[in-house]
Predict the 3D structure of the following.
Amino acid sequence: MSGETEHAPIFPRETPPTLAPAPAAVGQWSQFVGLYLREILRTFRNPWVLVMTVVQPFMWLAFFGSSFAAVPLTELEALLHTPIQSYTQFLLPGVLATSMLSIGMFGAMSTIQDKRFGFMKRILLTPTSKATVYVTKAIGSATRGLVQIPVMVAAALVFGVHLNGDPIMWAGWVLALVLLGTGFSCLFLAVTASSTDWQTPGVIANFITMPLMFASGALFPATNFPGWMQVLAAWNPVSYCALFGRGVVVEGVANWLYLGYLALFAAAMMSIGTFVASRYMKAE
């Protein structure tokens, strides 16, 4: 009828429900898991990487460990200031510690490969942050280094090395190696964050690895060093990882303060590296 006003419908029109966006932390966690699995699969799909990861420390144990075979045990114990069964027993924790030094180089080379082939550019177009990519690479490199532990322990047993320590001590030693590998992987990745040159990781690895390897207690006791090298060894995280493992393998004791030092080192490198990668990591 004319003059009558239209009345609003009794039931209001329904609006389609809106989904709340997922928290950013949840999204980054899923990206982290996917990228981490990719790093692990890439490791096991490339047999040459696995071979080189295992063979290099094995050669150290076989050749360098046998270099003192003709030295009488009493003289060797006086030189090393440690009652040992053989130099190979003394060397095993040091070799595993020094091998975690160079493992970060593979993570840096993997990052440069992702940049050169465009994967980094594609992944950064997604909501994945640079920090997530960086942390994934660092932890993936440290995980890759764990492959050599059972191989090296088995090789030491073949060489007749007697191993001490209980399962808790051994778990602590594995954790020490993970923390050391993570810390140095973060360092390598931070230094090469803005680089796309294949040669950069190798040059940096040679510059960092040799001084830290020899200025540590990994191969010989730091008490045999001159004063300035003892200062370096006292701050070198490789020393504390080697000393922790040597206490487990040789003496059957674990100094958990060394593990705390390695945890601080890994946390510091992770924090600094994440900041550097967030600002300076380039996609190409």
